[in-house]
Amino acid sequence: MSFNNKVILITGAGSGIGAATAKAFAEKSAKLSLIDINEQNLEITAEACKAKKVEVLNVAADLTKDEDVKRSIDSTVRKFGKIDIVVNCAGICGSGSILDPDLLKKFDETIAINLRTTIAITNAVAPQLIETKGNIINISSVCASLTTKYMIPYNVAKAGLTHFTKSAALELADKGVRVNCISPGYVKTPFMLNSGVSDAYIDAALIACAHIVPLKRVLEPEEIAELALFLASDKASGITGSDYAIDGGVLLTGLNALSEHKFY
């Protein structure tokens, strides 16, 4: 599987699944446009990709701002002349209970980052992808289809993202553009750091997750990246509007056991 001369735009490329995906595409000779709000993390990912002797463009951007969305795409097209594949990984861990007095603040922030940015990128990049007959991969979550306590903003945003994927896939199918999403379960990334919980909580949560997952382990971001490679490739040319769970079996058992777990 090679992505030689393919231009891949990846949001949230500074860490976690986004960084792993960028490195995976670099291994396959792709040209990369890497976008993240954290410029320092973005540079680390870019250097790792450049070590594979591929062309890399760094774009430090806040994708909740429409002007940054436009700048990211314009910069990519200016450098590479086209965009073939988009992988939307940008996101935060938006926790929140229906009883939280500041729930709506958390909700608005999570929707803006986890859902609106993907819609904005897709809306802006669609004309490019129609030209190249490209495809889009959105990183959703098993939380889109499972109900868990204390995660209302995140759950709702990911449910919206999964349905948006299907809606966009239907509209773009006759134009030769495929749109799919990946729904990970528990993945070992810095993602939870954005939730505001303590390091001790995160460590305990990861241990608890490993016990709850039927395969008895937390996934690595590289495993998600490998699925993204497949969906982006010609091997998946007949797949669009699909939601691929990669969760160690979590969908078989549910998540509420974790909601009841005490990490303190």
UniProtKB/TrEMBL annotation:
GO molecular function: oxidoreductase activity
Ranges that cross the membrane: none
Superkingdom of the source species: Eukaryota
Gene3D superfamilies assigned: NAD(P)-binding Rossmann-like Domain (3.40.50.720)
A Pfam cross-reference name: adh_short_C2
Keyword terms of this UniProt record: Oxidoreductase
InterPro entries: NAD(P)-bd_dom_sf, Sc_DH/Rdtase_CS, SDR_fam
Xref: PROSITE patterns: ADH_SHORT
Protein name (Swiss-Prot/TrEMBL): Putative oxidoreductase yxbG
Originating organism: Papilio machaon
